[in-house]
Write a structure and sequence with these properties.
Pfam families (chains A, B, C, D): GATase_6, Pribosyltran
Function (chains A, B, C, D): Catalyzes the formation of phosphoribosylamine from phosphoribosylpyrophosphate (PRPP) and glutamine.
EC number (chains A, B, C, D): 2.4.2.14
CATH superfamily of the largest domain in chain A: Aminohydrolase, N-terminal nucleophile (Ntn) domain
CATH class of the largest domain in chain A: Alpha Beta
Strand content of chain A: 15-25%
Radius of gyration of chain A: 23 Å
Oligomer: homotetramer
GO biological process, one term (chains A, B, C, D): 'de novo' IMP biosynthetic process
Organism (chains A, B, C, D): Aerophototrophica crusticola
Number of domains of chain A: 2
Largest sheet of chain A: 7 strands, antiparallel
CATH architecture of the largest domain in chain A: 4-Layer Sandwich
Structural class of chain A: alpha+beta
Largest interface: A-B, 77 and 77 residues
Number of helices of chain A: 19
Strand order of the largest sheet of chain A: 4-3-5-2-11-10-12
Chain lengths: 483, 483, 483, 483
C-alpha cells in the first residue's frame, strides 16, 4: 500500500515536525501520538516537554517516537495538561542529544520550551554578537539563538520577549512553544513551513500536518497564517500579528513529496494535488506505452493521475520488501552488487516485453533512478520512460530541508537529455514549472506566485545572510548543523 | 507501495521459509539474501548452517534476517560453498533458541543439517516410540523427529536414512538439507508447501519462492515436484522419486495471501492470479459504488482486478504509517482507543460522501475488518461494501500455517450475513469456491481438485494422526509447538 | 587483599577526582589511566576533553572509566597532546549526562574545559545574579557558575578571566582546566581538596592523588599549594598566587578514608598514617581480647597498627565475596534477610569462642556496623569490641563530600554509649580528636590546626553562604545537586 | 580485605560449583544465593532447574549469578520447593548456551536434571559407542554422556539408571541431580571434588563448599563421602554406597587455592590450613628480610602464617584497584606496557629500601610473578624473595581444573633455579611435598596418601582413557571441551 515515505537515500528530507496541545489530561500522550503521525518529517530523534503546574518534565532521545515514548515510566514522568513535542534528524556523536529539541531554558521569569521546524538564515551572525556579550551556547542548532535573544531581551513577559527575539531572526520557522500554562505557535512572515490549528473537543492543538490531528481525533480548524502568532491559554486561542507582513511563500515541495498524502495543506488534499500533478504530467509529456508503474513508495498518486489521464493501465511493477532494516551488511563486492535488490524487486510478469512508464516525484542525485531503470531492463522491459512529478531540482534549500550541496544535484550538473542518458531511460520528462502551478489551481507561475520554489528556480524569498559570505570560523558550524 | 505483507494480527501466518545453495563462494551470504527475500514467511527467528569441507559452522538467533546476519564477523564464520537457511516464527523463552532451525546433528557417518517448512501430523506418535527406545529430544519441534528417525535407521548413507525416516512421517514438508558436499531438497507426496529449483550460473539453488532466486540473480528453473527428492552434488541435480505417488495438493492460500506478489508458483504470476481473483469477485458480487479501495497492505492486486473489471475507479483510501514499531504503549484507556490509528489513516478527501468498496484477501477473527469499516464511516463514507478475495476461512490448518483454533475463526461461528453485521458493513461478499478455482484456470472445484483448500472446506488431504485423539500428555506439547 | 574502597552504603563518599596532562602523544590515553587510578573518588560518571590543536574532542558518559574509555574508537577520537579528565558521582535521569564533567564552553576567545573536585558554597547566590543578566544555565552543577563568570568577565585572556571568576566564588575547589595548548591547575586558598603535580619525563601532570601518577609511571613532584594556580604551557610550569592567602585547611578525612592507601599526601604515606592512627587508638582504648579483625575493605592498615601496638594477633575474620554485583534482587522477605551475607561472610574458625576487636574507620549511619557485630555474634564470638579510627562524625560536609543530612548521622543523634547499644557491641571507642592530630605528627589540635575537621567539630573554615539562609526557590536546586 | 579470588590469568581455575536443596519454599532463590557464594568456582555461566510438582522450569545463561538471577521475573518463573544449580566457565559462541548446566532431559519416566563438578576421563570412548547406537548428542560436554547412558539403561527407576550409568564412567564427579520430588548427590569413588551436606532447618542441602551453606544460614553436617550417593526425598536423607570402594583422593589444591578461605573441608578451616602451610614454608625456607608481603588476593593467609612463624612484620605492600573491569583496552604499545599497573600498585612507602618476602600460592606460567617482582624493584625494593605455598605445578589436571597444557607450565620446563632467574627474584622457594602433607596434619606423603596431588607429582589416581590414546577425530572434541 501507499506508505508514508520511508527512508530513501536519494530523496530530499524534511528536517522537523512539531506538535503542541493545551488542556487535556495526558497531554504528553497526545503529543506522542501526534509525533508518531509526523514521524515522516524526522526519524532520528524526538522529544517532549510538558508542564505540570510547577515543573517542566522532559524526555528527548535518539530513535523513533514509538521506541522513545513507548515506555510507561517515561510517559508517567511527563505529567501535566500542556505539552509540546518535536521530531528531527539527529546529528551523530555526543552533540546529538544536546541538539534534540524541544530546547528548554530557565529564564528569570520561569521555564520555557521551544520546538522549531525550519532553518534560520542569520543565526550565525546573531550568535557571534551574543557570544561577544557573554552568552554561552550549548548546542550547535540555530534554534538556540532564539532562546538567548529572549534571555537578553529588554524585559517584558514571555510573549514580548519572544516577539523581540523573532524580529531579529531571518529564515523559515514554524515554532511551537511552551510556557507556564501557555502554548504558543508562530509561523515566519513568509509562512515557508506548515503549521495547522485543530481542536480536540475544547482543547486547542498545533501540528505541522493535519494527519497529526487525525490520529488523536482532533478537528482541523485552519492553517496558522504566515506571520501569525497564536497564543493558547486557558482554552482560548488568541491571534497576534506582531511582524511586518510579507508575501506568502509556502514550500511547494510539501505538496510534491514531504507531506503525507492524507494531509490537507491550505485546504487542499495532498493526495489529490499529487494526482493532478500526475495528470498534468501526462498532458505535457505522454508517450505510447503498455503500463504505468509508480516508483515506490511515494509515486503512487501521481502515477494514478498519469494513468487515468493517459488511459494507460496502472500496475505495481516494483514490489517493496517490507522487512528492510538498515543494518544489513554485504560482506563481499559480489554480494554488494546484488544488494541493490534488498529493498525492491521487479514484478517480472508485468515488465517482460512491456513498454514501461515509471512515475517518480523527484530526482536528486539520480542514484536510485539509475538502479530502477536497470531493474526494469533486467526484468525484460522493451522501453523505459521516466516521468517526474516535479521540475528539475537544481538548487539547495536553506529553509529546513536537508538537500545535498548544489554540486551534487543531478539537475544542477546536467541537462535533461544528459540526465536521461545518465539514468539510462528511453525518455525522461519533468513537469514544467507552470504545469506545477496549474495543478495547484493557478494559471501559471508569475512574479507574485505564492510558493517558495527556490529549489527549482534559485529564487530565494528570504535573505541567506549566513550563507552568502560565511566567515571562515563559521564553516565548521554550518557543516556541523548540516551533518 | 505494495509491500510484502507486514505483521497484521488478523491474518493467517506462514510459519517458515527455506533456502539452500551448493557451489558458489560465499554460499552463506547468498543464503542470507535469500532468507531476506523470504522474510514474509517467518519474521521472528532465522538460522544458517554451512559446510566448509570439514565443519558445519552455524548461526541461529531470534530476530530478523538483516539483524542476525548483518554482522561481518557472523558472515565470516559461516565458511564454505554449501549452505542452507531457515526463517520461522519463534516461540518465547529459553526454548526458543533450541527450536530455531536448521536443526543439526552429528551422526556416526558425519554432520547433517535440516530446514523444514510445513508441519508433521504424526510427530508426537513417533516421538513417543523413539523416547521409549532411549532417544533424548532436545527441542519441542516436530522436525526433530526426522533427525532421530535417521539416527536410529537401519543404516545406509544419508539419502537412504532420510528416505527411511520420511517414509514414516505424515504431514506437510518441504525440506532443504545439508550433508557433506551435498544439498538435498524434498517435498512431501502431496506437495502442500512450495519449493522451487533455480540456477545461479552453474550452481543449483533451492528456495521456498522465486523471489529468493530474484534477489541473488538466479534463474527460476522449475518447482520441485510433489514427492520428489532432488540431490545437489558437485554441480549435478539428481531427481529421485522415493515415495508412493499421491494427488497434488498445493496450498491454495499461497496464491491468495502468503506468497509475495512478485513470486511465480507452478508457473503462475502470483500478482496476476490475485488480479484475476479480484476480477472474478467483481463478476460475482459487484455493487454500485464510487471508489474501490484496497485494504493495506495485501489487498492491492485484487482491488486493481476488481476495479478494472467493474470500471469503478481505484484509489488508495487508507494510508499506512510506515514507521510503526511494535513497542508503542498507550498509557491510558482514552489513548488506547485512539491507538487503532497508529497504523492507518483514512484518506479523508477520497472517502467523505463516497460509496466505498473495500477489497481485502481474508477475514480471520474479523477484528481488523471492524476497525477499518469504522474508520471509513468516521471519514464520512456514505456506504461501505466489503469484498473478500477468498472463501470464508472456517477451518484450522495443520500443515504449517499459524491459524487460530477453529472456535476463534469468524467464519466458523457466523453466517455471511452475521459476519456483515459484526463488521458493520452495508454489504459483504466472499469469492465462491468455484470462482476461486476459475481464477486459477479450472472450470470449477471438483473431487480431483489439485489444491489443498481445507481451511475453506475442512477437506483435509493428509491424516491428522496426532490431532484426532491426542493423549493427555501430548496436549502440552501440541500447545507449546503452536505457541 | 586490601582494595581501594568499594561501594559501601554506610561510608562518606568522595565526590570527584581530576587529572590533566600536557605534552605527550596519547594524552587522552594517559588521562584515562589516571582516572582509572582515581576511580575510588567517583564511580558513576567520567569524562575526558582533549585539545588537538584546533578542536576540543570530548567524551563523557555514565559508568566506570574502563567501560567508558575501553573502546578504541572513543580513544582514537580524543586526539591531541593535551587533555583533562574527571570522575564523579552522577545524578539520574536526563540531567545526568549534562552534569558530567569536564564542562566545556566556547568563549569569544576560544574553547575552554574545566574539571572540578570540591563544592562551591555561594554558587546559588551567584547563579541568581547571572540569570538576571540573561545567562542561561544548562546544568545544575555549581561548577557551571565559574564558566558563566568567565564569559561575563571584563575581558582579558583565559588566566585573567579565570582569576576574576574564582575571586568571586567561595567554597572548596581543586580545578584542572584545558585551554588552547594550556593546562591549568588551581586549589582554593584553604586547599581543602588535594591536587598534586608530577612529571612524566618532560611532561607536567596534575592529579588528585599520587596513585594516578604511579599508574602512568610519572614522578611525584609536590602538592599544588593552597591558593596556588599552576599554568602548564609548552613544557613549562608557571606558579601564580592570585588570591589572598588563607590558613591551610586540608581535609583530614582524606587521610582516614577517602584517599587510596598507596597515595602520598603532603609527603605522608596514607597507609602509614592509617597504621599510626590504629596504633594511637590501641594506646587510647585497648581492651583484653584474642584477635584484631579489620572491617573490610578499608580497615586493614588501622587494624594492623592496632594489632602491632597492642600485641594482639591480627587475622582476617571477615571474608568478602569478590563477585558482588549491584543488581542481585531478593524476591522474598525471608531471602532478603539472608541477603546481608551476599557481600561478607564470617571466617568462623577464627571467631567462634573468641573475644574480638573490630577495627573500622568511621561510623556514619551505623547500619553496616549493626550487621557486622551481629555477624560476629552469629559466628560465635564471645565478646565484640568495636574501635573506630576517626572521631565521631557528627556534622555534614559542604566541601565536596557526599554526607547524609546531619539528622541521619548516628553521632549527631546519640552519645558514644548510646551508639554502642545501637550497634550491639560490648564496647565502642573512637580515636580522640587530639589523638588523630598526634598520629599526624602534631602535639594536639589547637586553634591554628592545619586541617578541616568540620565533620567532627562543626568548625567550618569557609562561609556556607548558600546553605545558611536558602531562599525557598533554591531548595529544589540544592536537593538536586545533592541527589 | 581478603577477597575470594578474582580472575587472574596466571592461576589454575576451578571449573564448576554445584548446589541443591529440597523442601523449602523459594528453593530456587536459595539456590541462587548458594551459587552466588560459589561464584569463585565458575564465573562465566550459571543455571538453575527447579521442580514445581509438574514441570521443571529452568534458566541458564552466560554471566554472573547476580546478573542472571537478579530479575524478579526469572526468579518467579523458577517455582517449586526443590531446585539445583550450577556455576561454570563457559565456552564461546552458539555452543556456549547449550553447554551451560544443569543439563535436563525428559526420559520415558519423567524429567531429570543434572549438575556436574569434575571431569570424566572416558566420556569420548562412551560417546562413540552411544552415537553408534543412534544417540544424538546436543552439547560437547562430557556430562551429557551420563544422560544418554541413563536413557539407554536397561530400565528401572531413576536411582537404578543413574547407578548403572555411573558404573560405566571414569573420572572425577560431584553431581547434584533433580528428579520428581527428589534431589540426589553423588561423589565419585575417589572423592576428587568436594561435596558437602547441610541442613536448613529440616530441609537438606547439598553444596560444593560450606560457604554456600553459610549464606543461606544452613548448618554444615558433613562431607558426602567418596563413592557415596545421598538421596534427599520428603525431608529424608538416605545414604547409598553403590560403587566399589576406592582410596580417597581429595584434590589437595582445594586447600591451597580453589576453595574460599572461609570454607571448611573435611572438617578443616581452609584459612587455618593456609596459615599452617605458610608457617611450614617459613620453617623450610626462611630468609633474613624486613617485610612479608602477600601477593593479592589469595596469598594473605599463607603470608600471615609465614610472618607469625618467622617474626618478620606483615604489611600490604601491593594495593589492588577495586574497580578493574575486563574491558579496558590500551590503544598504543606505549600505553599497553603501562597497563600492567591497572590492577595493582606498589605501596611504595613500605617497599623502598626494604628486603621483601613475597608470598604467593602457586606459579603456573609465571607471567604474573615476573611483573610483581618487577613492580617491587621499581618501587625500590633492595631484595625480593619469592615464597610459594605449593610445590611446583608441573603436570596438567584432568579432573575438572582448567590447567594449561603441560608444555606451558613453568615448573614443567624449568628447574627451581631457572624459574628464579626467569621471574627475576633474589631467591625462590616452594613448600616441599612432605611439608604440604605436614601442614595438613600428616607425617609426610607416602604411597597411601589420601590426596590427589597429580599436578605436582604426575601420579594420576584415575585412568585417563580418553587422553592416553586419543583418536584423531576426538582431538577436536577434547580441544573444544577445554576451550
Amino acid at each position: 500500500m501507499l506508505t508514508t515515505h520511508p527512508f530513501d537515500d536519494d530523496k530530499l528530507r524534511e528536517e522537523c515536525g512539531v506538535f503542541g496541545v493545551l488542556g487535556p489530561l495526558d497531554a504528553a500522550a497526545l503529543v506522542a501520538l501526534g509525533l508518531h503521525a509526523l514521524q515522516h518529517r524526522g526519524q532520528e530523534a524526538a522529544g517532549i516537554v510538558s508542564f505540570d503546574g510547577r515543573d517542566f518534565p522532559s524526555h528527548r532521545a535518539l530513535g523513533q517516537v514509538g521506541d522513545i515514548f513507548g515506555s510507561e515510566a517515561v510517559m508517567r514522568s511527563l505529567k501535566g495538561n500542556a505539552a509540546i513535542g518535536h521530531v528531527r534528524y539527529a546529528t551523530t556523536g555526543e552533540t546529538a542529544v544536546r541538539n534534540v529539541q524541544p530546547l528548554y531554558a530557565e529564564f528569570e521569569f520561569g521555564g520555557f520550551a521551544l520546538a522549531h521546524n525550519g532553518n534560520l538564515t542569520n543565526a550565525l551572525m546573531l550568535r557571534r554578537q551574543l557570544v561577544r556579550r557573554g552568552c554561552l551556547f550549548q548546542s550547535t542548532t540555530d534554534t538556540e539563538t532564539i532562546i538567548h535573544l529572549m534571555a537578553t531581551a529588554r524585559g517584558g513577559n514571555v510573549i514580548d520577549r519572544l516577539v523581540e527575539a523573532l524580529r531579529q531572526v531571518e529564515g523559515a520557522y514554524s515554532l511551537v512553544c511552551l510556557g507556564k500554562d501557555q502554548v504558543i505557535g508562530v509561523r515566519d512572515p513568509s509562512g515557508v513551513r506548515p503549521l495547522v490549528l485543530g481542536m480536540l473537543g475544547e482543547h486547542p492543538v498545533l501540528a505541522s500536518e493535519t494527519v497529526a490531528l487525525d490520529i488523536i481525533g482532533a478537528e482541523y480548524i485552519r492553517d496558522v497564517a504566515p506571520g501569525e502568532m497564536v497564543v493558547l491559554e486557558a482554552g482560548q486561542v488568541q491571534s497576534l500579528r506582531p511582524f511586518q507582513s510579507a508575501p506568502s511563500k509556502f514550500c511547494i515541495f510539501e505538496y510534491i513529496y514531504f507531506a503525507r498524502p492524507d494531509s490537507f495543506m491550505e485546504g487542499h488534499s495532498v493526495y489529490e494535488v499529487r494526482k493532478k500533478i500526475g495528470a498534468q504530467l501526462a498532458i505535457e509529456s505522454n508517450v505510447d506505452a503498455d503500463i504505468v508503474i509508480p516508483v515506490p513508495d511515494s509515486g503512487v498518486p501521481a502515477a494514478l493521475g498519469y494513468a487515468e489521464e493517459s488511459g494507460i493501465s496502472f500496475d505495481l511493477g516494483i514490489i517493496r520488501n517490507h522487512y528492510v532494516g538498515r543494518t544489513f551488511i554485504q560482506p563481499t563486492d559480489k554480494i554488494r552488487r546484488l544488494g541493490v535488490k534488498l529493498k525492491h524487486n521487479a514484478n517480472r510478469a508485468y515488465i517482460q516485453g512491456k513498454r514501461v512508464i515509471l512515475v517518480d516525484d523527484s530526482i536528486v542525485r539520480g542514484t536510485t533512478s539509475v538502479k530502477i531503470v536497470e531493474m526494469m531492463r533486467d526484468a525484460g522491459a522493451k522501453e523505459v520512460h521516466m516521468r517526474i512529478s516535479s521540475p528539475p531540482t537544481s538548487h539547495s534549500c536553506f529553509y529546513g530541508i536537508d538537500t545535498p550541496e548544489k554540486e551534487k544535484l543531478l539537475a544542477h550538473k546536467l541537462s535533461v537529455e544528459e540526465m536521461r542518458r545518465f539514468i539510462g531511460a528511453d525518455s525522461l520528462a519533468f513537469i514544467s514549472l507552470d504545469g506545477l502551478y496549474k495543478a495547484l489551481g493557478h494559471a501559471k507561475r508569475d512574479a507574485g506566485a505564492q510558493y517558495c520554489d527556490a529549489c527549482f528556480t534559485g529564487d530565494y524569498p528570504i535573505p541567506l545572510t549566513d550563507f552568502e559570505a560565511p566567515r571562515p570560523a563559521d564553516v565548521h558550524q554550518l557543516a556541523e548543523r548540516r551533518a
